[in-house]
Model the fold of this input.
Amino acid sequence: MTPFDRRDGWIWLDGALRPWREARLHVLSHGLHYASAVFEGERAYGGRVFRLANHGRRLVRSAEIVDLGLPHTAARLDEAVLETLEANGLTEAYVRRVAWRGSEQMSVAARQAKVHVAIAAWDWPGDPVAARHGLSLTWAPYRRPPPDSLPWQAKAAGLYMVNTLSKHHAEAAGHDDAMLLDWRGYIAEATGANVFFLRGRQLHTPVPDCFLDGITRQAVILLARARGLEVFERQIKPAEIARFEGCFLTGSAAEILPVTALGAQRFAIPEPLRRLMADYAELVRETEAAPGEITPEGAGVGAIRPSA
Done:
């Protein structure tokens, strides 16, 4: 894989498209030292961004939660996402928006530091092998902290430390990912995705009370109910997983990926899960919605505008 700092193309930075290799920040940026940064991960399918406006609003909300005043509106940043895709000629892509405090101040408090915003996009074909054969997960060595200990509702850089360490732990042991428990010992999430369990016509998923209620997670719940599945959002104990037939992860990057092993437990890939995967693949390529439109169910896409 080509290192990200050696790629060609265009990155939207602070209001303008710049050559990829010139999109840099200072080594004393506050966001690097104190994790004063928020971000979003999105997917484009056939030139359209799935739930573009949902991601834009969540970025703004995350910035508000961590006291990071964005210099652009959500609508302007949505437009910038489309500009970035168009400039790079991408239709099947991953999009990363990120906002961070700059280098004007170097201390714990840095309210006078300038807030920067960047948007990058690159090819992302998905993982057909993992979708077909499933993932192997181990239990993470760390837990999600209690909700009164950090601003967990924000998609903020600093909150991903335990996720990174847990995934490194899993990969070193020969697994694809790790499953985190919350501070009480209930199942929480994987390192970058939400989790669901299947039993018959029932779908069980942890209550997002100390981790993000993912945009893909919300879409999957709607798809499951449309399929006639009962969805239960509840606290799930690790000992319960032996009762389930299937398990899968959801996320913008992951989409829907089956889990075939979690610790010593093995899972099949049951037919209801295969149907949900097919339904999701169809949903993300729907073209009926206008750019940035949000339906009553929250589904929305954005379209790359034709070149002038």
